[in-house]
Q: What sequence folds into this?
């Protein structure tokens, strides 16, 4: 039997305080890759870097990915547009890309590309990480019979402290069902909170609860964290059973429209 | 039937302890299956399980035992197989004080056997300065308290292995006599000679150990005869084809406690390079020590299946090197196929779990998860619960679930295996209250240190221990994992009454390992295969995201 592939999605809070985390991931990425070498055929990386801020009329989301950004235009719509289509309400947008096309743009086996993209991230605004996690769950992962699906989420704020407060938690049961249906191996490095504890009960989830005082995860030992991740991914089994239907866009991000708004800092 | 007081006492305790000694499925075929009494029905108990009938059953079930089987199987619809009897025998034995230095019926502690003193004295030479008194302070009368008292003692390797398995006489042993006279090498050579292709091919039942190819159910009864003879019980975690580890652990235990008994937590095959040698070694050990070896099923053990239409072996788990070996196409393919099918039959009959009289649950993976426990709670005590325990989905959880440090986990039945936390175990204990389960020992999870005493569980008053038997590094496809990457110490659990087993750490003899590596590992064709590396970052950042 051929060695499995790994789809590894980093979900990173890009709120204003998180700049140190970008450097941590860039610097220590080798620590997560090394334990997998010899055990897997190919590691594909993806990125969901999300922040949010409120403005007068609602919430402005900025979700970045590996897809090449068009420099300030259609903020956040590269990834969301690829997954769900854009502008469906004003009739000027386009539909979602095919899974193959979206995958080509959102995943890469070139770690350099991920590292470069992390270097381009500009922290700003606040966070809504459960929504970011839901977007990551909708990515076009490889088939279960050949691919280990991994999502690693990093944030220095509890899930409940984002722009939606604990409002996002109302969809946690559905989110958890979706994680389990998609057979996602979930890694979290987040402060403690109700949502984090519920996510810790997900089968195959591994949670690093952070202390109260976090400075963009600057003090977290990423070498150890990533080494554990790599070993865990290496030893995890392929999930060869069929994938059931699941609901996409739990937070209705498929109804977003582009905005020229500017993220406000904290 | 006239019984001595000792035997009457055993019979009484057998019936009592049978209530807390059960095993899902054991190493016997259906033809020798026995009905095991469950808590709510003591009258359906092991009346045939007197020591006399037990002795009669060496080699073949006694008429009394068979009668109990036939009479009860239909009545209660429960067929728990004969390693259940082994566990019952163990329970009876322990109740008599014949097992792991348990308390006597009158509440007194019996003296420690010589073997125990031996290992204890060696433990006093503990390089880490762990005080013997520290190990003994645990209040055995209050085991429900948070327990962080998993003793770790370091025992030096025996100066000489006093006894090794007798070499089975095979028609030809092409590799046996050429290997250097090192303990592990000698043992593996002798073991290998026992299952040489010639032996397989001849099926000469006088020439090979009367285990795999003896026919009928003889080879499957080795755990049934009597789990009542051991002075102390030792628990070995996953071995995964690591012959060096298995041999080292057994040699050490044998030297320290000649009257030892072994409970192996499963996963004998896959990953490591010597699964068949390990299989043969364990079965030979079981044949040499009737009643003192219990092999519980692991997910790798029971994962092997034969795909008739395809004419190939498959496995439900990964990695599955054992299946790959069985599927090699060459002139020996028919023999491999026959061997593989025998193996599947053997593994299918392995017990899934055992409960010691003091409430120690031993199992490879876990126990029925919370979604199944709900059904258990609705069942009346007695037969229905027995049928529930025997159902496929319940048996699967014993082998496939994985222990975690978290309080609770949601079972994901879409996944190949689920995980659980300490609250889930507490829930299981309460659901199965009549069985008196109190603490848990598992394998399955591979611990870098050879064991995990689960401090998160202990902080919440739940005792658990996970043991790992093999010594090679995670990266089992690389020869250096069996040399420089090999663990410095191997681990084995030693049972103690009313407590979680203590962990005995056995230093690896570096010289012996080097010799074994030089002869058995470094030259193996399996390691010559070039594996495609994982994605490696390109160009300038290679130093940052470098390769292993």
A:
């Amino acid at each position: 039997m051929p060695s499995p592939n790994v789809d590894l999605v980093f979900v990173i809070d890009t709120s204003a305080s998180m700049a140190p985390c970008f450097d941590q991931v860039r610097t220590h990425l080798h620590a997560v890759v090394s334990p997998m070498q010899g055990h897997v055929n190919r590691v594909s990386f993806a990125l969901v870097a999300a922040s949010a801020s409120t403005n007068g009329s609602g919430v402005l989301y900025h979700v970045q990915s590996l897809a090449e950004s068009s420099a300030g235009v259609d903020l956040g719509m590269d990834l969301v547009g690829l997954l769900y289509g854009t502008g469906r309400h004003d009739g000027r947008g386009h539909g979602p890309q095919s899974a193959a096309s979206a995958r080509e743009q959102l995943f890469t086996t070139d770690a350099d590309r991920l590292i470069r993209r992390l270097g381009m991230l500009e922290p700003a605004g606040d966070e809504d990480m459960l929504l970011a996690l839901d977007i990551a769950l909708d990515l076009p992962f490889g088939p279960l019979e050949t691919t280990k699906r991994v999502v690693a989420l990093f944030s220095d704020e509890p899930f409940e402290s984002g722009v939606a407060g604990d409002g996002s938690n109302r969809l946690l049961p559905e989110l958890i069902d979706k994680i389990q249906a998609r057979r996602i191996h979930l890694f979290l490095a987040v402060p403690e909170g109700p949502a984090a504890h519920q996510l810790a009960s997900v089968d195959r989830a591994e949670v690093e609860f952070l202390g109260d005082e976090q400075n963009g995860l600057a003090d977290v030992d990423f070498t150890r964290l990533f080494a554990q991740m790599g070993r865990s991914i290496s030893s995890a089994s392929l999930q060869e059973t069929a994938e059931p239907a699941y609901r996409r866009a739990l937070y209705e991000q498929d109804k977003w429209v582009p905005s020229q708004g500017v993220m406000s800092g904290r | 039937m006239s019984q001595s007081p000792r035997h009457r006492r055993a019979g009484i305790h057998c019936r009592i302890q049978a209530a807390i000694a059960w095993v899902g499925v054991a190493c016997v075929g259906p033809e020798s299956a026995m009905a095991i009494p469950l808590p709510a029905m003591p009258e359906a108990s092991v009346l045939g399980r007197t020591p006399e009938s037990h002795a009669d059953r060496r080699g073949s079930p006694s008429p009394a035992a068979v009668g109990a089987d036939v009479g009860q199987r239909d009545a209660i619809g429960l067929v728990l197989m004969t390693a259940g009897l082994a566990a019952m025998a163990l329970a009876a034995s322990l109740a008599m004080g014949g097992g792991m230095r348990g308390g006597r019926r009158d509440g007194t502690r019996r003296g420690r056997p010589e073997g125990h003193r031996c290992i204890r004295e060696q433990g006093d030479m503990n390089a880490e300065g762990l005080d013997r008194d520290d190990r003994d302070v645990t209040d055995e009368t209050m085991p429900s308290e948070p327990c962080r008292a998993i003793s770790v003692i370091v025992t030096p390797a025996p100066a000489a292995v006093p006894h090794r398995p007798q070499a089975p006489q095979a028609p030809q042993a092409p590799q046996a006599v050429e290997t250097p006279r090192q303990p592990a090498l000698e043992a593996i050579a002798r073991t290998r000679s026992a299952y040489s292709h010639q032996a397989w091919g001849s099926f000469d039942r006088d020439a090979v150990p009367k285990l795999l190819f003896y026919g009928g159910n003889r080879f499957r009864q080795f755990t049934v005869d009597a789990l009542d003879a051991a002075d102390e019980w030792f628990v070995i975690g996953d071995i995964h084809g690591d012959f060096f580890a298995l041999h080292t652990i057994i040699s050490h235990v044998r030297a320290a406690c000649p009257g030892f008994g072994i409970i192996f937590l499963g996963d004998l095959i896959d990953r490591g390079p010597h699964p068949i040698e390990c299989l043969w070694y364990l079965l030979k050990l079981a044949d040499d020590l009737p009643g003192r070896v219990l092999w519980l099923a692991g997910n790798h053990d029971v994962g092997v299946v034969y795909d008739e239409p395809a004419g190939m072996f498959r496995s439900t788990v990964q990695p599955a090197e054992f299946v790959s070996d069985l599927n090699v196409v060459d002139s020996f393919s028919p023999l491999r196929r026959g061997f593989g099918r025998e193996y599947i039959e053997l593994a299918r009959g392995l017990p899934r779990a055992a409960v010691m009289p003091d409430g120690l649950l031993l199992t490879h993976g876990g126990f029925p998860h919370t979604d199944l426990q709900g059904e258990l709670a609705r069942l009346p005590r007695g037969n229905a619960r027995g049928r529930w325990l025997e159902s496929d989905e319940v048996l699967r959880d014993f082998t496939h679930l994985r222990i975690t440090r978290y309080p609770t986990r949601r079972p994901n039945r879409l996944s190949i295996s689920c995980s659980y936390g300490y609250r889930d175990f507490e829930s299981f204990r309460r659901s199965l209250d009549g069985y008196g389960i109190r603490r848990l020992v598992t394998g399955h999870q591979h611990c870098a240190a050879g064991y995990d005493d689960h401090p998160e569980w202990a902080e919440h008053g739940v005792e658990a221990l996970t043991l790992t038997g093999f010594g090679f590094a995670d990266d089992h496809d690389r020869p250096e994992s069996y040399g420089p990457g090999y663990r410095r110490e191997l681990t084995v659990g030693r049972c103690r009454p009313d407590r979680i087993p203590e962990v005995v750490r056995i230093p690896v003899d570096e010289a012996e390992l080097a010799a074994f590596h030089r002869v058995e590992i470094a030259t193996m064709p399996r390691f010559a295969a070039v594996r495609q590396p994982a994605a490696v970052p390109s160009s300038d950042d290679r130093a940052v995201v470098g390769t292993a």
About this structure: Chain A is about 30% helix and 20% strand.
